Amino acid sequence: MVLTGKQKRYLRGLGSLEPVTVQIGKGGVTPTVIQQLDETLEARELVKVRVLKNCLEEKEDIARRLAEGTGAELVQMIGHNLLFYRPAQKPQIQLPG
């Protein structure tokens, strides 16, 4: 799935209102974190992830591993926040064409 610029802008607008749902700390990206993000994506489609300051991994590596592990698309990376999108089995978010 590849999002267009227009779709990413739309999702970033929605994401600004989203609370942080998943946090990554000192342990970094673990199978448990990937599973938690996967389940949250299925329920919500758009998920904000915060990388805590005590995390030793690079944000870019974290974003890549989470996207690969869940099949989600990285929509935005600002500071310590990452925004991921993956359509659910029954999509709730209608993306613009």
Structural key phrases:
97 residues, alpha+beta, four-stranded mixed beta sheet, RNA binding
Overview of this protein structure:
GO terms for molecular function: RNA binding. InterPro entries: RNA-binding_CRM, RNA-binding_domain, RNA-binding_YhbY, YhbY-like_sf. Residues 1-97 form the CRM domain. The chain is an alpha+beta fold and 97 residues long. The model has no long low-confidence stretch (mean pLDDT 95). It has helices at 5-15, 31-44, 59-70, and strands spanning 20-24, 46-51, 73-78, 81-85. It has one domain (5-85): YhbY-like (Translation Initiation Factor IF3, 2-Layer Sandwich), CATH 3.30.110. The protein contains 3 helices and 4 strands; from the N terminus they run H-E-H-E-H-E-E. Strand 3 and strand 4 form a beta hairpin. The two termini are 14 Å apart. It has a 4-stranded mixed β-sheet with strand order 1-2-4-3, with helices on both faces.
